[in-house]
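notes to self, project folder thing:

trying the whole complex as one job this time. last attempt i did each chain seperately and stitching them together was a nightmare. two parts in total, labels are on each line so i dont mix them up again. if this works i'll redo the older ones the same way
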Amino acid sequence: MIDSISSRAVSPGYKAWLRFRRHPLALLGSVMFIIILILALFAPVFDRYEPNKLNLADKFQAPSGEHFFGTDRVGRDIWSRTLHGGRVSLLVGFAAALVSMFVGIVLGGLSGYYGGWVDMLIMRFTDVIMTFPQVVIILTVATFVGQGILNVILLIGLFSWPGTARLVRGQVLSLREEQFVVAAQSLGARDLVVIFKHIMPSVIAPLLASLTFAINGAVLLEAGLSFLGVGIPLPTASWGNMLETARSLDVLQDGPWMWIPPAIMILLNVLAINFIGDGLRDALDPKHIV
Amino acid sequence: MQYFLRRLLINIPVFFAVTLLIYGLINLAPGDPIDFFVNEEAGITREDLAFLEEQFGLNDPFIVRYGKWLGNVFKGDLGYRFKNGDDVAEVLEVRLQRTLILMGSALSIAIIGGVVLGVFIGLRQYSFWDFALTGLSFVGISMPAFIAGIFGLYIFSVKLGWLPSGGMRTIGVPPTFLDLLYHLILPAGTLAILQFATFMRYTRFSVLELKQADFIRTARAKGLYRYQVTWRHLVRNAILPVVTVIGLSLPTLVAGALFTETIYSWPGMGSLFVDAVMVRDYPMVMGIMLVIALVVLLSNLLTDLTYGLVDPRIRFE
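result (full assembly):
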């Protein structure tokens, strides 16, 4: 095994994968996450009832062979809603994380590359956004832009980029004096081409680890917003708005099956992605030697 | 001193930008205060509305309105609540105090517990305790306040009946310190979890990293006793960077307080904010945002200052 690796040129990506593979928690996290992803993606295969279908005859039922996780106040099947809710929560998590990464990469790239007043302006703007916990701004804006999956994605994405922007800026700042950048510049490449085609590929590694944390942040924000009642509107299920039912005392007290499944799913999902992110960070750290 | 002044000066434009952001955001909200208060059915005509708008300066350009608002803010006048006409500044004073009690307790638990346990397992890498606590800390950093809160409420209040389900004091009993403490356990514990785990992980990492440092080897080579090296050289320096993490954790703590206060009906600023946002009580929302921004900026400044004080290298920057 060792021979076959050392006998040919090994890409840094492959080396990173080797390190990742040997990280026990990262592997555990990957397995957990793949299971969650399969359950969510193939929700229509595993569900037993229409997730949004009311069935007042069967309302408020404890778990049974009929309904694995019981039913909610209006007779919707919790097992099916947990699966379909996972779809929505993960969709929001991934999409919002991508939006925020995009904004962060663009702003951080411009800031680090141009320096001077561009940097000053973008970084002070970043400071301002970072002064508020995201929930505070998003909650405020959410009440007047209205609910809906797309709005939740955009809101989370548009207010979660400061961390990424700072990370990218730092990386670009240290890379812009490198020879390959100077070479590209002297060949007459336009600034945007230099930033996004030449410099950015070198920044991908640290970004990958921060993407996992961005996904977690977004999943948690969606859950938090829905928990407060301004996230994903009913009847569409999401882990967050299922959890919201626990805010009324009778459900909290007498219907734990309604909120424990989404709570556990959020926890497991966040835990799994944290494990993966940790493994990625260790694997992609160039100082780290196998 | 110069270092501190420079940090202070950087924060001033940021503060103004923050006020602009707050005003700008709320300005995007549909409708205006007139719509909020005037009942169309009471026989009020369009002309009356236009007159009112003109009189209250609602048709002035954005910059003029912002300037007026900012001027009032500096005079300590944050306006009156849409919801019930209460003075925003007065309400804030009471609510902020309660939130600070909650956040202060949570932060103290997290700092003391996190740093002590972090040092403990950092000095015992790969021991049973290291694995157990590092594992638990993963659960801790994955546990948002709203999930910890629901489980806490369900287990300790509903099922076991050990602790009250909410509020700040037992109704009908004169308020005592012990009673407050009794009501504080669950919310403060809930709010502390995330920070506790974060500080513990960070301290452990910091201790592990410093173990390799040259000056530790030098201290050992000098023939100092083991405990001297550990406590005077290693631990003291390892705790240093944790100061930064503590300072930067404030926004997360505020966000956590929002959920914790809502779940345990702690009558502080966080639950008030959620309330105010829901009923579009914008003067209250703006007031709270302003306070949050001030608290965060102040804590950043304090972090810089503390760091400058404890780390002599900063002065040569």
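what i see at first glance: Chain A touches chain B at residues 25, 124-125, 127-137, 139-141, 143-144, 216, 220, 223-224, 227-230, 243, 246-247, 252-253, 256, 259, 263, 266-267, 270-271, 274-275 (CB under 8 Å).
need to look closer tmrw
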